[in-house]
Amino acid sequence: MNKINSIDEYHEEYAKSVSDPERFWAEKAETFSWHKKWNEVLEWDFHGPSVKWFKGAKLNITENCLDRHLENNGDKVAILWEPNNPNESSIEITYTELHSRVCAFSNVLKRNGAKKGDRICLYMPMTPELAIATLACARIGAVHSVVFAGFSARSLEDRINDATCNIVVTADGGFRGEKIIGLKNIVDKALENCPSIEKCIVLKRTNEEVEMKSGRDVWLHEELDRVDDVCPAEIMDSEDMLFVLYTSGSTGKPKGVVHTCGGYMVYAEYSFRNVFQYRDEDIYWCTADIGWITGHTYIVYGPLLAGATTVMFEGVPSYPDAGRFWDICDKHKINIFYTAPTAIRALQACGIDFVNKHELSSLRVLGSVGEPINEEAWHWYNDEIGKGRCPIVDTWWQTETGGIMISPLAGLTSLKPSYATLPLPGIQPCLVDADGNEILGNDVQGNLCIKFPWPSMIRTTYGDHKRCKDVYFSAYEGKYFTGDGCRRDEDGFYRITGRVDDVINVSGHRFGTAEIEAAIDEHENVVETAVVGYPHEIKGQGIYAYAICHDPKVDMTSFIQEINKTVTEIIGPIAKPDKIQIVHGLPKTRSGKIMRRILRKIAEGDVSNLGDTSTLLDPSVVEEIKTGAGLV
Ligand code: WTA
Asked: Could you say which architecture CATH assigns to the domain 95-228?
């Protein structure tokens, strides 16, 4: 069953995966249902890059998520949905029901013109229909592009246009805590500039008044009345695109990371089963949103491939109060709980009373994802939530890696707070120095690369293969570069130290500093900005913006409000700066490059040791910035 049961077995499996990767992965892939097996397990070249797993194989991932469970597990709950409002009933959807609802939704997509290969944008709240729509796209061979429903109309528009989507699926609105987000209105705004969109399918969730544009917009419930629930799965090639998911990098606009069917399927299931040490009777809950890769792989695909019960939560951790997560854990008797350090820190700050009202006795495994977990949060999670008896899996991975890469296997690997510990079988990490040489041995530090392909790795960036090559495969000859710094300790355990590029991680959300700068620059009073991350107690990193203004004598309160409004319009509320400092100049080299190292130090409050500033065009700007003048 592809399950590792002891640490010795892990080491054996790992050794096999390195000595004969093709045989190793062929064995794992055997357990899935394929229409045709592969001619070749792996063909690869990191220079292209060109990576093909299970070449020539034919499959549909939804048959593996749904159809193959029907005979023995049709009545098992596949999705257990918990609404935003605790007074509304939760919903259980069995595998049989989910299969039928996915097929019906597939028919709605087809009725509205969807075909194999089309790109379909999903901009939806965390309702069961989001998971169903995701699977429906996969069922008919359309490529889903899920956009997190906290992004602005502009961000949505950019993503729709980049992938030339022809259909968008949304809802009238979404509930998030006390708030209602008017999703359809945001979509309407985006669609003013999206010529490729032909249809907009709308779920009724909040009963907001919305405008329905005739010929373009249709209600999902009315469409569902017009279709049956029989839909044979489209047969896909192993390397056909399964989805595109946009993520930020150090430069330019967010890029569409492309994942394909066969390899992603095998790795999603394998990593899910082993990292969490999943057992058939487990209730598993990942608190992410399906708008992020964590939701794709570990709410939808991984758990459903394994035939698990996956919990989906519509709301936020603080509503109706800071005990909501723990309330849900008790209510649904959660066994495996997977969340982000930022949520742990935020809940820790609300006080222990919210935890102590709950038993939390069903929990067996805890997980962490998205950013480094600091030791204090790790211990709180371990002691107060896990009561010292639940292993914590600190899972390191990325949108680009498709699945968990470095992580303990729950209960098997020994733990070390703030360490992601060891690579999964099939994953060959290495550390490189500034010259690109591999750093061998232990007790070392460097930039984290992966030197051999794994099944769920990025295949390209949508519409721009060169970008994929430049960003990931050019920094170090013959290796995939992650963008993260990493330490390997004396025992060979890995600890991720954070990004070494201009990507910042704010509450587990990834942003390029350039992307936020471009948004702030759109404010009419702003001449130029430089954005850096700084350590933030709850968010992990906060956003610090230095801005040069045409008129520096602004009313600070309204300036902040305006900047926040601008950033919210262009990216979304999650990218609002935490601190803004109005400055007269930015530290630039003679060639005009901003010296972010200096700005980072100042933002961290470490002004005593700014290093060499002699190459600056005008060193006096640093003196001004250092004083903190203009900081709001
Ligand atoms: C960071 C999220 C430390 C890292 C799945 C990576 C982590 C980026 C961890 C990817 C972890 C993710 N420890 N850092 N356990 N997990 N990161 O694409 O910097 O949203 O490069 O994928 O998050 O973020 P992404």
From this structure: 3-Layer(aba) Sandwich (3.40)
